[in-house]
Design goal:
Distance between the termini: 59 Å
Strand content: 5-15%
Shape: flat
Number of strands: 8
Largest sheet: 4 strands, antiparallel
Radius of gyration: 26 Å
Strand order of the largest sheet: 1-2-3-4
Number of helices: 8
């Protein structure tokens, strides 16, 4: 008797990898659902404890609070459902997305544009085909650094746009990120003595009564300036340079997207035919690791 092996159309391919929502999504959804449900019950119960208050006022208060806190409860339920359903599968031929209410499949060979972005936190990638658009937010999946590295290496360099913006915002280990951080630090360091002096003057002399409006923004900027000074002090006040980055990589800095222009050194096929495992095994410089975000 010959044993049979059960097969399924949804069975993943050998070179396919699936990314799911992180556990933080589940934790935030559970805490938010309990918190907002408690607030809804509290706002419905409080007006009943004051029998002297007008009935119309109590109903209006309970309705407004229930709508506001109910929106938070709906958002928490959405996070729980997204944790259960949302996933992204990548292979050497196609990208499959399963969301809360819809599904999409984008073949890699049909992608005409790949636009990188640094917002929201973790960065995003918008994939365009002739009649489809898929937005991938790396912060919504586990191991976002590996996911970003896969798309950076497997997509042709000519279809990728605005990668420098993504790199300078979401890749702390890159030169572009250090240059942007250095510009921000210098801005706050220059403002630090000016705002510190202004805050001292406002503490003793305020003829136009603007202390209550200016104190909080000035104090925040001063804190950012102190943080910038501390950061530069820990770094030894060194300004990142291309020469330093070159020396750290043994005299060579790989060109971004170089893996997308040719095959591997062992003569394998084009990067579009390689799976995520093969891409992950190939060393790549300047490839962002979103998981390294502070």
């Amino acid at each position: 008797m010959i044993p049979t092996i059960a097969t399924s159309r949804n069975q993943p391919r050998p070179n396919e990898r699936t990314y799911r929502s992180p556990k933080a999504c589940l934790l935030i959804g559970l805490v938010g659902l309990v918190f907002f449900s408690f607030l809804i019950g509290l706002t419905v119960t409080l007006p009943q404890l004051e029998p002297d208050s007008p009935v119309a006022y109590s109903i209006l208060f309970a309705t407004i609070c229930a709508c506001v806190f109910g929106a938070g409860s709906v958002g928490s339920i959405y996070l729980l459902v997204a944790f259960q359903r949302r996933r992204l599968s990548t292979s050497d031929e196609i990208v499959r997305y399963v969301g809360v209410v819809r599904r999409k499949a984008v073949p890699l060979a049909e992608i005409t544009r790949a636009v990188w972005g640094g917002w929201p936190v973790g960065g995003r990638l918008m994939l365009y085909t002739n009649g489809e658009r898929l937005v991938i937010q790396f912060g919504n999946y586990t191991d976002p650094g590996d996911l970003a590295s896969f798309f950076r290496a497997v997509l042709p360099i000519e279809v990728q746009e605005r990668y420098e913006r993504f790199e300078s915002t979401c890749a702390p280990a890159t030169e572009a990120f250090r240059r942007r951080q250095g510009r921000e630090d210098r801005f706050f360091i220059v403002l630090l003595p000016l705002l510190g002096l202004g805050l001292v003057v406002l503490a003793f002399w305020d003829p136009y009564d603007i202390r209550q409006w200016c104190a909080a923004p000035m104090a925040f900027t001063i804190v950012m300036g102190i943080k910038a000074v501390y950061t530069r002090w820990r770094a030894g006040w060194d300004v990142p340079s291309e020469d330093k980055a070159t020396s750290e990589h043994g005299g060579q800095v790989a060109e971004p997207g170089a893996a997308a222009e040719g095959g591997r050194d062992d003569g394998s096929s084009s990067p579009q035919r390689r799976g995520p495992r093969a891409v992950a095994e190939q060393p790549q410089a300047n490839v962002p690791r979103v998981s390294e975000l502070p």
